[in-house]
From TrEMBL:
Highest taxon of the lineage: Bacteria
Protein name, as recorded: Bll5862 protein
Organism: Bradyrhizobium zhengyangense
Keywords associated with the record: Membrane, Transmembrane, Transmembrane helix
Parts of the chain that traverse the membrane: 128-151, 157-176
Length: 195
């Protein structure tokens, strides 16, 4: 959504509900910086005061296609911006185009302001290593169960293990692939971490 900031410049805005209770989190990109309104608090971060952005893919049970942008301020504040919004107790709606447009515009304005923010994508390196270690241990356990099922001739067990492994690889594989830790630049945002 675009308006003007009172000085004739375009204002890009985005809002989402992080929970059923409470007001929406609202953000605007103005000439002065990122204006935010969250849970009764408000502030304005100049674009050159944003010290870091981390983009990630964060699916949840009610929304398998959810993205997140975590912003950090030079004085220690943090803001999370999600690509989904709670509508009802059973519905979390995607806001893909609005989220994408807002994040791309934020990066463009930060680049124009000469920002030196650290731009990272995916999970943190330690978290990602822990996820890979867990998946490796799970793969070894599943292989052991498959070998045992093959040796004992348990056809139902073999089919169950293969089906579970395929479903798990399909569900978790995208998460692991998209959230590989890496850096990016203002002019080359990671396509896999934007809707």
């Amino acid at each position: 959504m675009q308006d003007t900031d009172g000085q004739g410049g375009p204002v890009v805005s985005y809002a989402y509900k992080a929970s059923l209770i409470g007001s929406a989190h609202r953000f605007e990109l103005t000439e002065g910086g990122l204006s935010w309104h969250i849970a009764g608090r408000a502030g304005l971060w100049r674009y050159d005061e944003i010290s870091a952005i981390r983009l990630s893919f964060r699916p949840v049970s009610m929304q398998q296609h959810r993205f997140r942008a975590d912003l950090s301020h030079v004085k220690g504040g943090r803001i999370a911006i999600l690509s989904t919004s709670w509508q009802t107790a059973a519905l979390m709606a995607p806001q893909d185009h609005g989220f994408r447009d807002f994040v791309v515009a934020l990066h463009a304005r930060m680049a124009k302001a000469g920002s030196r923010a650290e731009l990272t994508a995916g999970l943190g390196r330690k978290t990602y290593a822990a996820v890979l270690a867990f998946l490796a241990a799970l793969a070894v356990a599943m292989a052991g169960l498959l070998i045992r099922a093959l040796i004992t001739g348990e056809l139902a067990g073999i089919l169950f293990i293969l089906g579970f492994a395929a479903l798990f690889a399909w569900q978790v594989g995208g998460f692991v692939r998209r959230n590989q830790p890496r850096s990016y630049s203002f002019d080359r945002l990671p396509a896999g971490l934007l809707p």
